């Protein structure tokens, strides 16, 4: 079969992650089976096929770069892929494991393992885009399976899909969800977080935790100040920002600023005490 007539090829690769984004892909069910009738899925360990060296049209990557082996493997995937698409918070912003970027990773490893010299762990957990060129980023913790499916169809048609980075608040309006920040005083991250989840947490009267990363032109500083004005301690404000997508700007920049305020205050209290 020639390149012009062969079916499109897809691979799904895992790096440091919980597999949740791959499961979101699998949970598509029948739409995924329909996709498999039109493309060849050559590598997707969670689903069965394994061929990590395959040359593909689209390589989906879940997880962050956390070890030296990750970095080397990733460059090979990039070379063998026409499009490389990151899926989920770990791949797009370092994920939960990027919390270690704020501390001494070697100290943590030494405190857990009897022989830490055998642990291959980089000092930081970093997004895929910090190591190789990424053609499209799909945020979420986990990513939306429908969004992955839509991106696949767009890329195979020869164009990048439009990703909505408007705030979750806009989705709440569309879903007619009561604002949990206004009605209940909850510390919701919706005003600065991209939609994509369907505002699932606010619709269940829970505050948003920023699973889908920063919204376009997000005024994170204003939200952080508001949270502090409502009585949230500075260290809790920092934790809210430096969480699921804490390595992503502007969450990282603002979160580190509030973290520095805590350190400065503690130092002042020690001098006075």
Automatic annotation (TrEMBL):
UniProt entry tagged with the keyword Oxidoreductase: yes
Entry's EC annotation: 1.12.1.2
All residue ranges annotated as the NADH:ubiquinone oxidoreductase-like 20kDa subunit domain in the record: 18-152
Domain of life: Bacteria
The keyword Electron transport appears for this protein: no
GO molecular function: 3 iron, 4 sulfur cluster binding; DNA binding; hydrogen dehydrogenase activity
InterPro entries assigned: Hydrogenase_assoc-protein, NADH_UbQ_OxRdtase-like_20kDa, NiFe_Hase_small_N_sf
SUPFAM superfamilies per record: HydA/Nqo6-like
The entry's keywords: 3Fe-4S, Homeobox, Iron, Iron-sulfur, Metal-binding, Oxidoreductase
Cofactor(s) the protein requires to work: [3Fe-4S] cluster
PANTHER family hit by this protein: COENZYME F420-REDUCING HYDROGENASE, GAMMA SUBUNIT (PTHR42845), HYDROGENASE SMALL SUBUNIT (PTHR42845:SF1)
Protein name, entry field: NAD-reducing hydrogenase HoxS subunit delta
Gene name, Swiss-Prot/TrEMBL: hoxY
